[in-house]
Structure formats: C-alpha cells, structure tokens
Amino acid sequence: MAKYRIMTFDGGGVRGALTVNLLKRLNKRFPELIKKTNFFAGTSSGSFIALALAYGLSVDELIDLYSEETARYIFTPKHIFLFKPKYNNEHLKRVLSVIFPPGLRLKDLKRRVLVPSFRVDGGNFIRWRPVLYNNFPYSYTKDEYVIDVALASSAAPIYFPSHHNHIDGGVIANNPSTAAIAMAICKNAGKQKLENIYLFSMGTGYTPHKINADTRRWGALEWMFNLRPPLPLFNILFDGDVEADALFTSQFLVDQYFRLNPMLPGVIALDEYQKIPYLVSIAQKIDLQPAIRWIAQKWFD
C-alpha cells in the first residue's frame, strides 16, 4: 500500500508565524514536501495554514498572513475582556476573505483537510460536542464555507467571540494529530491502515510552564486570573493537551511520526503580534537537521 502522508498544525495565535517560517525552510529543502501530502489538519490558527495548503496556496502566501502588520490589524481594537471578548472578529474575517473566496466550501478544496472546533449549543444534538470539520466524501460538514470553519476553529474564549455557537478547537484538540489519525483510518473517511500513515506534526513553540504556588486553596479567581503563569486554567486547557496528544500519536505511529515544536525562551501570548519578528528570527536559527533526516527517510518513497 502507498504511504498516506498527514501534516498537522497546532493552534497558537501569532505563534503560527514560527510554524510557517519553519515550514518555509523545510519546503525550500524539499520542494515536493507539500505536494506529497495527502491530508492536512489544523486547529485554531493552525486551521488557517491547513485550509490554505489544502486550497493550494503557497507557503510564501502564508508568510504574508502571519506578518506583524496583518496580526496587528487582526488584534485591534482591544476591549476590556472581563465583560466582552478582548477583540471582535471583523478584522479577522476581512483577512480571511482576502485569502479565501467567500463562496469557497470545504468540498472545493484540492486536498483533504480536518479542522476541529467545539459547538457549545449542540446543534441538532442534546448537548455541546466537538465538531471535526472535514471534506471527506461522506462528511456532513463538506458543504460548510471555509471562512466559517476557520472562524469557528479560532474563536478562542476570552479573545474572540464564538462563531455560530462554536468556540476554538483548541479546547478539545489544540494539537490535531490524534484526531487526524482517527479520521484517516475511519471507514467512512480516509479508509487507511495505520501502518501506512506517516505524520509530520508542527507546533507553535512551547514554553515550559509550572505553578509553584500552593494550589490546594485556589478557587475560580486564582485558576482563571493568576499571573504566574497568566490565565493558568486557559493555558492548561490549550497547552496541556498538546503534549498529551503528541504522546498518544507517538504510541500509535512510533517512527512513522515526527514532532517539530521548538522550545521558546519566554511566554508569547496568542495576541502578542509585536513578537512576530522575534518568532521569525527563532525559526531561522532552529536546527532542522533531525526533521530533515526524518523527512528524507520517511516522507518520500
């Protein structure tokens, strides 16, 4: 059986600039890297990358999406977020409308794609639920508009308003690798055997977090608004599952899996667009030899 190649992209807001600049370096080294990929998956900010690549956009066009200028536009104006979202999503909608035609649906994309989100009102179901937007032939989501899917997956609570009663896919799968494997082996979707799957996972960088305080007496205020680390419960929900997913995926695929997620020297919030030049400089300096060796050995026939 032929190899089935999956590329996944974590959420992380402006830290997606790190991802796309690492991808640019890898794509320069392997010009067939994107072309050989069968299936893209991305969550939140990573959904923009996955959807764009599935649509057929180049890595250079993604670099423009993650420029400091574009991010500054998306993350303005700022509101006091105790009583309303920190940002509205009008500027983000306009940016996405430049990339994706308003009438573009998931089924119109050139490659398979998966984008997690979470529907808080349940839709036709009796309770809230995860939604795995995808464009496989039997998918009930394949007629959804690409822009709506991107907005639904990136509606980070506190930062952006929910979109059509959906919130950020990062609450269930900020690293979408395991979800992508599940979709790939599903009999109504990818129909692949696990032994044929090769998965390259790209993170948005991580900063080792820990809470040194005594948390035994913490209540809602401490878990929500403590400053070390900032918004601890929010960061646990979005970052904690990332490494758990990496562990699960490595158990499923062993050496058919590679995770590229460099450590960052300090915390970079998802809206800190001022740090994008810094992220770009990190991406240009990271040693990619382990990733290059894995791609050369595993990705190509």
Quote the average pLDDT: 93
Quote the beta fraction.
5-15%
Q: Assign a percent range to the helix content.
A: 25-40%
Q: Looking at the structure, what is the overall shape?
A: globular
What this model shows, in words?
The chain has 301 residues and is α/β, with parallel strands linked by helices. The chain is 40% helix and 12% strand. It is built from 12 helices and 7 strands. The protein has helices at 16-29, 45-55, 59-65, 68-74, 90-99, 146-153, 170-173, 177-185, 220-225, 232-253, 276-285, 289-299; strands at residues 4-9, 39-42, 112-119, 129-134, 166-168, 197-202, 257-260. Strands 1, 2, 3, 4, 5, 6 and 7 form a 7-stranded mixed β-sheet that branches.
In short:
By secondary structure, the chain is an alpha/beta fold.
Q: How would you describe this structure in keywords?
A:
single chain, 301 residues, alpha/beta, 40% helix, 12% strand
In terms of topology, how is this protein built?
Blueprint: E1 4-9, H1 16-29, E2 39-42, H2 45-55, H3 59-65, H4 68-74, H5 90-99, E3 112-119, E4 129-134, H6 146-153, E5 166-168, H7 170-173, H8 177-185, E6 197-202, H9 220-225, H10 232-253, E7 257-260, H11 276-285, H12 289-299
Parallel strand pairs: 1-2, 1-6, 2-3, 6-7
Antiparallel strand pairs: 3-4, 3-5
Helix pairs in contact: 1-3, 1-11, 2-6
